[in-house]
């Protein structure tokens, strides 16, 4: 990449997930050059480009042929991503992609392998890591000042209505989404938790579909967690908790307890001190799944561009995403088989 040139990015897909990315890219226009946007529906493509002031690409092939294109941002549903990733990797373009990596861990691993073999950087959108409160807690954990982790508790008490959400074609299906509340909604909080706690070694779980929804996949999961570092914990994730609330992660360390709730971090130290960092914000836990700020996406897109230019891995990688996929698989398997499952 030439010195002083903006980072060239192409966008594939303009569905529901695209709005915060578009707002973030416009806010980053001094750093990121949106070289083109592409989707199969020409009318929807033009409407999106007119709304946000982006150029429409003539085709995906034409986008990849652009010598000033450094990377593609893939925002399609998970069942449509692998061909786009393969073509980008073959063209030597780096890839930033919405979560989940794919519908199954096997398919997700193929995508990670494609990018590794081509020598291109793969980043996965997990914007919750980029909240100010999340970064502050990550810094405290890395410093060691909180001491050893003893217990962790994750709650994702979200709401999604049947009408207008699960009634949409493919929503909550294995064919399109790959699963329910875990892989589609709680995956963000699971990724953030693992980034702070380290890996889970075994789970015992219950997954179910409540009477609120007519869907193929689960809308409620509760489980016990055994971490590799010796800590224990529990989780509850649902889209059947009307009207929906902020997700929270509580980590109990030997020197303090830390709670991330929405965009706020509360630290209660055993010596009597208390700290509050960040500010509460919407996170898409209610009926409107896009009711959250775009600055977290902005920070992640910038980190990805910086990583490519600096020759390092981004904060959220394909491999870190695979760890979340494997945890989700273990939770579903534990419920289906009625036993403790190793991750």
TrEMBL record:
Signal sequence interval, chain numbering: none
Residue ranges annotated for the Gfo/Idh/MocA-like oxidoreductase N-terminal domain, each copy included: 8-124
SUPFAM superfamilies: Glyceraldehyde-3-phosphate dehydrogenase-like, C-terminal domain (SSF55347), NAD(P)-binding Rossmann-fold domains (SSF51735)
GFO/IDH/MocA-like oxidoreductase domain segment(s): 136-257
Domain of life: Bacteria
A molecular function GO annotation: nucleotide binding
Protein name: Oxidoreductase
